[in-house]
User: Fold this.
Amino acid sequence: MKKPSPRADHLRRALAQEAARVMSEHGVRDFLFAKRKAAERFGVVDGSVLPRNIEIEEALQEYQRLFGGESHVESLFAQRQVALDVMQRLREFQPRLVGPVLAGTATQHDDVLLHAFAERVETLSLRLMDQGIPFEVGERRLRYTAERIVQQPALRLEVDDQPVEIAVFPLDGIRQSPVSPVDGKPMRRADAAEVAALIEAG
Assistant:
């Protein structure tokens, strides 16, 4: 394979940084959309120089370190507190935190994303109703392999003005995590104890 030129490497980094800026400032979570906006700004039409999602995620972490400051730290702390609150309320469903709030790359626009496990979605719905928590029922599209994409039932709610989405899996779904849109590896999941430790460390 031909080694990329230093100019191409530099352009790829610049595109990753611009895509990260778009995601951070506008609350965009679609990597492809962010890449296209970055390419448009730089007038790039060659798809081979577009950064990979993992490169954009790394640029996003760097952007938040440089420009997020105290407000990023505070909003991430609040999102993790909400996550832990919901996880403790639904502990019997073995909830796990996933996505940007776990990774630390969440912006103030991001939802808290949880995975929960139940024989029937209605069981979890009834628990929320018992606690007087309003919610909406929907779906989340999740990928397991290149060929296997599943529409997973999901419940959407708000806690302290923070949107929360809970994707509900069968009980054995705890053994196989969907793949992450960032690196294509199984999505990292954190239980309540891990989230509490992150809050304590933060």
The radius of gyration is 18 Å. The first helix runs from residue 6 to 26.
